Every structure is written in C-alpha cells, then in structure tokens.
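Hi R.,

Here's the chain you asked about this morning:
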Amino acid sequence: QVQLVESGGGSVQAGGSLRLSCEVSGLPFKRYSLGWSRQAPGKEREFVAAINWLGSPTYYSESVKGRFTIQRDNAENTLILEMDSLNTEDTAVYYCAATTRPAGRGLDYDYWGQGTQVTVSS
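And the predicted structure, written out as tokens:
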C-alpha cells in the first residue's frame, strides 16, 4: 500500500520559516519524481516545487523561487520542503505527491498525500 504522509505544518508569523516533511512508503522511492503543491481556501491547487528521482533538476513556481527549497533523502524515503521568508499568501494546505514521470511544473502525479496545513499570519 502506497502512503505519503506529510508533517511539519503549523502556524507562523510572516517572515518566519517552516520545514515540511513527507514520508513515503510502499513504492520504490528512488524511481519516483516527487513534488509539492498547495491549495488555498477558494483557490485551485497549484504547483509549488518538484524534484527528479536523481535529486536534480528541481523546479519551483515563480511565487516561491528563492524562498523555498525542495530536497529528497533517498536513504530515509523522505521528501523535504524548506520554506523561508513566508508571507500570508503562502497560507494553504500543502500536499506531497509522487510520479514515475520526469519532474516538471505540473500536477500530474500518481500518488498524493493527505496534506498539511500551513498558516502564515501578518
């Protein structure tokens, strides 16, 4: 059974940082590209970041580029999203996802986690 379990969400003030983790099980982790997306209230889900199975290349949306960093730990089957300089527009539920296809800036994934809430206050 494939499972993607996000953690690390929470509430933070603008300018702060959070580190999201996604523990993946039930699939050959090293063969999957991984990504993060988010969905704010009343908005469609949007791409945030993605990383290829080799750890590169990585992709970021323009809204998070330079502030967020996506990493993967193939030894621990874990995907990480380091988020710095958070602002109120980053408030959303964040989802991790996995696919056998090459990483890109889309939302075409085979498996999804349940999401973790990130709330940024001013």
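The longest strand covers residues 18-25.

Let me know if you need anything else.
M.
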